[in-house]
Design brief:
This protein is an alpha+beta fold. Helix content is 38%, strand content 15%. The structure holds zinc ion (2 copies).
Length: 96
């Protein structure tokens, strides 16, 4: 399964929405409004097909966009590298 297919799947949409609702849509790190369910175990082509990792609420963290950015790339890093966040809260290469 590709990352795009995973983030578009019903199972992920349902889980991420339920998880963010359980966190009151607040960032677990800074308390600002959060709209990203971040995988504490970063997904890759191997573990994305494993629901015990990719669809496990215990492995998610609710983050705002700044904290998510910092988690993956350090402050400002995503912008410098031409990356952007998708609506589902993960990162992809921006359209250049
Ligand atoms: Zn935050
Ligand atoms: Zn993430």
């Amino acid at each position: 399964m590709t990352q795009a297919a995973f983030y578009n799947s019903k199972a992920w949409r349902r889980l991420s929405r339920a998880f963010l609702t359980s966190q009151s849509y607040l960032c677990e790190r800074c308390g600002k409004p959060a709209d990203i369910a971040h995988h504490k175990t970063h997904l890759n082509s191997r573990n994305i097909a494993d629901p015990a990792i990719s669809l496990n609420a215990a492995l998610l963290e609710s983050l705002c966009i700044e904290c998510h950015n910092t988690e993956h790339y350090g402050t400002g890093g995503a912008i410098l590298q031409g990356l952007e966040f998708t609506a589902e809260g993960d990162i992809r290469k921006g359209q250049l």
